[in-house]
Amino acid sequence: MNVIFLGPPGAGKGTQCKVIADRYQLRHLSSGDILRRERADNTDLGQKAQSFMDSGRLVPDDLIVAMMMKEINAADTNSGVVLDGFPRTIGQAEELDKALNAAGKDIDVVLCLDVDDDKLEHRITGRRSCSGCGAAYHITFNPPQVDGICDKCQKELTQRSDDTAEVVKNRIKTYHDQTAPLVSFYKEKGNLKNVDGNVAIEQVTQAMCDILDRVST
Ligand code: AMP
User: Fold this and answer.
1) Residue whose CA is closest, atom 2 of ligand 1?
2) Number of domains the chain is built from
3) 57 is known as an active-site residue
């Protein structure tokens, strides 16, 4: 089963993708995580992506498509992949379709996590993660016991450099301008399923599993 996750920044795609990938034994491929790794390793791609990411704009399609196709082809895709943050433009979606069709594969379902715009900024700017073990926190919804310190390994918590209020506004605008058109694109293809992402994490997971259980049987 191959699954695409759509939704604005802060909708909870990363959190839900991890659970879904684990439950259905799918390979989780997050374009944002891959780009952050490229930046940490200071690769050519990481350097090219830097200014786009720091300002909340999209990295150009040709770079992203090449990067993601390499990852998809390298993944052991027998059981399938869950794509998190890719595609993010119509151009990327068309390239993905072409490449999958050439390999005799297809997208089984596109899950779109809908969250009201007014909730997104607070969800994102409050996010923190542990610099040691990567555990995720939120200063309001899931705070650590000691401010700024990981409960599990006592290392310092950090904030993503593009999770600041100013960049978040651009990321949300970029989503509406360039990524939201994918909703109609996949609706026309007939494999889009909307999920209410305004409710509790566990409720969102359950709604997604109900859909995936139907798709995978
Ligand atoms: P994310 O972690 O998904 O929020 O992505 C962080 C940043 O990486 C985005 O704001 C973009 O600059 C870049 N990025 C991630 N995925 C894509 C994509 N599919 N196309 C273009 N840029 C992307």
Assistant:
1) 32
2) 1
3) no
